[in-house]
Amino acid sequence: MISSNHALAAFNKREKIIVIGAGIIGTSIAYELSKMGAQVTLIDQKFPGSAASGSTFSWINATYPKKPYPYNFLSQLGIDAYKSLEKEINLKIKWGGSLEWFDSDEEQTTLMNEVNNLKKYPRYSAVDVINEREARNLEPGIDFKNKNIVFSRADGAIDTIHAINLMIENIEFNGGSVLYPCQFQGLKYTNGRLSSVETTIGELEAHQAIFATGIDSGRLLSIEMMKPSTPGIIVTSKPTENILNRIIVGPGVHIHQQTDGRIIFGEQTGAPSSHIDRLSDKPKEFPSEIFAQDHTNRIFDTAKTFMKKVEDLKVERVSIGWRPLPRDGIPIIGRLEGLSDVYVAVMHSGVSLAAIVGKLVSEEILSGSTNLLLKDFRPSRFN
Ligand SMILES: Cc1cc2nc3c(=O)[nH]c(=O)nc-3n(C[C@H](O)[C@H](O)[C@H](O)COP(=O)(O)OP(=O)(O)OC[C@H]3O[C@@H](n4cnc5c(N)ncnc54)[C@H](O)[C@@H]3O)c2cc1C
C-alpha cells in the first residue's frame, strides 16, 4: 500500500513550485514539499534567514497572547510539529518551558486573568502558576522577586538560523534547489495558468508560487494585509557555561540559552515612535558600535535586575529584527483569490508556527485541497 503522502507526490511531481523567501516559513514549506517529492525551488533576494528569521528571539510557544482559539490551537500543533521535525532532521531544540512574570501588581493581575482565560479553551498548552520557591528550584540564577510565576511547560526555543540551514541541506538532498541572491520580480501567465516567475537571475519555470516574503508580502502582492512592522533588538552572547535551563520571560526582557551555550536577549519594548522615521529603511544593524553598545547596556541593565552573571557575558552580535505583522494580528495563509496558482504565508510568531505551517501548506499545495485548520487564516478576509 502506498502512503497518502506518496500518492500526492506521484500525482504532482511534474509541477514546478517556487517558494519566494527563505525565512523560517518559506524554508519549512519548501522542506516539506521536497520531502513529498515535489520539484521545489526556494529563492531569496539576499540569503536564507536574512530578514526577521535571522534576528528573532526564537521562542516556540502557544501562550495566552495567541488568541482567539483557532490561532492558539494552531500554535499548540506548532509545538507538536517541532517534536517530529526535531527527530527528523536532528534539530536542536531547547525544551524546558518558559517562566513569565511582571514587576507591577497590575500587570501580574492581567497575566493571571489571561492564564485563566487560556484554560477555558477546549485544549491548551500545559500551564501552571507556581510560587517563587518552585520557580527558583527550576532556575536558580533568577531572582523572581517573590512573585507568582506562570510556568508554560511545553515551550521551547531554537536557533532559527541553524534550523533554516538544516532544512536547506535536506531540501537539496531531496532534489530541491535553493537560489540566492535571487529577487522575485513578477509572475508570468500562459493560457490563464502560472508558467514562470521572473527574477533577477532570469525566468524560472513555475506552476505554483508561494510567497513567504515576510514584511514585503503586502507590497509584493498589492494587498493591504500588513500593518507597519515594528523593530526589536536581539543581543546574542558568545557561548558560555550553562546558566539558564528555561525561557525567561522577565520584566522588560526575554532571555534564553541555546543548546550551543549562546544566550539570547530580546527586548520587550520596541523603539520609541520618535525613532521610527530614522528607522524608515529598516536597518538590521546599528550605524555604529557605540549605538549597539548603548542598546546592549540598556538591555543588560534590565536583565541584571533579575538575573545573575549578566556582567560576565561577552557580546557576539547585536541586531535589529523587523516583525512581519498581519493587519489583524492573525496569520495569513492560503491561496489568493483571483490570482491563480499563488499562495501566501505570512505571520508574526512565525518561529512558533513554522513546523506546522510547513506541513499544512505543503499538503494543501500538493493535494489542491483545503484544510479546515487553516480556514480562519485565509487572505480572502482582506478582500
Ligand atoms: C525581535 C523579534 C523577536 C521575535 N520573537 C519571536 C519569538 O520569540 N517567537 C516567534 O514565534 N516569533 C518571533 N518573532 C517573529 C518571527 O521571527 C517571524 O514571524 C518569522 O521570523 C517570520 O518568518 P518569515 O519566514 O515569514 O519571514 P522572514 O524571516 O522575514 O523571511 C522573508 C524572506 O523573504 C525574502 N524576500 C522578501 N522579498 C523578496 C523578493 N522580492 N524576492 C525574494 N525574496 C524576498 C527576504 O529576504 C526574507 O529572507 C520575532 C520577530 C522579531 C523581529
Describe the overall structure.
Helix 2 packs parallel to helix 6, helix 2 (24-35) packs parallel to helix 9 (350-367) and helix 3 crosses helix 9. With 383 residues, this protein is an alpha+beta fold. It folds into 2 domains: 4-54 and 161-226 and 327-382, FAD/NAD(P)-binding domain, CATH 3.50.50; 96-154 and 228-325, D-Amino Acid Oxidase, subunit A, domain 2 (D-Amino Acid Oxidase, Chain A, domain 2), CATH 3.30.9.10. 30% of the residues lie in helices and 25% in strands. The radius of gyration is 21 Å and the shape is globular. It has helices spanning 4-12, 24-35, 69-89, 105-118, 132-138, 160-173, 217-221, 289-304, 350-367, and strands at 16-20, 39-43, 59-60, 93-95, 98-100, 127-130, 149-152, 156-158, 177-179, 184-190, 193-199, 202-205, 208-211, 226-227, 231-237, 247-250, 253-257, 263-267, 315-322, 325-326, 332-335, 342-346. The chain has an 8-stranded mixed sheet with strand order 6-7-5-16-17-18-15-19, with helices on both faces. It has a 6-stranded mixed sheet with strand order 9-2-1-13-22-21, with helices on one face. The protein is built from 9 helices and 22 strands. Flavin-adenine dinucleotide binds at residues 20-26, 43-46, 50-53, 55-59, 183-184, 212-214, 216, 220, 232, 234, 266, 321-324, 346-352.
